[in-house]
């Protein structure tokens, strides 16, 4: 759930676009709703708003320069390393779990790895 205040802020900084009604109310299109969902997904991944704005612009343009691709790959690599380190840090705590909890975590991690690999393979082909 996104608050009205947050939506107003996104609109004021140019993340969301809104038309105006005759009575000066903001009207958001389906595209704006998709953008809002994308913004919230990016926020959940801890992207700063300026990076989210750049990602939205790239999505709308439908093309990207090689330097932007390199920047994205670098950013993703850094995020993957951070996640790897985060997982490594919690291994001692995972070892204290019972066997069923360990199995559940291992299965979830395996599913995520598989999804990531499939996404990477799809992009590279």
TrEMBL record:
Transmembrane segments: none
PROSITE patterns from the UniProt entry: HTH_MERR_2 (PS50937)
Gene3D superfamilies assigned to the protein according to its UniProt record, in alphabetical order: 1.10.1660.10
Key word Cytoplasm present: no
Domain HTH merR-type: 1-58
SMART domains xref list: HTH_MERR
GO MF assignments: DNA binding; DNA-binding transcription factor activity
The organism's place on the tree of life at top rank: Bacteria
Keywords for this protein: DNA-binding
PANTHER family, per database record: HTH-TYPE TRANSCRIPTIONAL REGULATOR CUER, REDOX-CYCLING DRUG-SENSING TRANSCRIPTIONAL ACTIVATOR SOXR
Protein known as: MerR family transcriptional regulator
Species in which this protein is naturally found: Neobacillus citreus
């Amino acid at each position: 759930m996104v608050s009205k205040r947050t939506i107003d802020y996104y609109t004021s900084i140019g993340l969301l676009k809104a038309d105006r009604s005759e009575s000066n109310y903001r009207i958001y299109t389906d595209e704006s709703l998709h953008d809002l969902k994308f913004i919230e997904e990016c926020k959940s991944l801890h992207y700063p708003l300026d990076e989210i704005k750049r990602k939205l612009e790239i999505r709308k343009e439908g093309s990207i320069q090689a330097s932007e691709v390199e920047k994205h790959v670098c950013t993703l690599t850094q995020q993957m390393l951070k996640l790897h380190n985060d997982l490594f840090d919690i291994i001692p705590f995972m070892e204290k779990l019972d066997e069923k909890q360990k199995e559940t975590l291992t299965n979830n991690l395996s599913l995520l790895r598989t999804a990531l690999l499939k996404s990477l393979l799809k992009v590279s082909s």
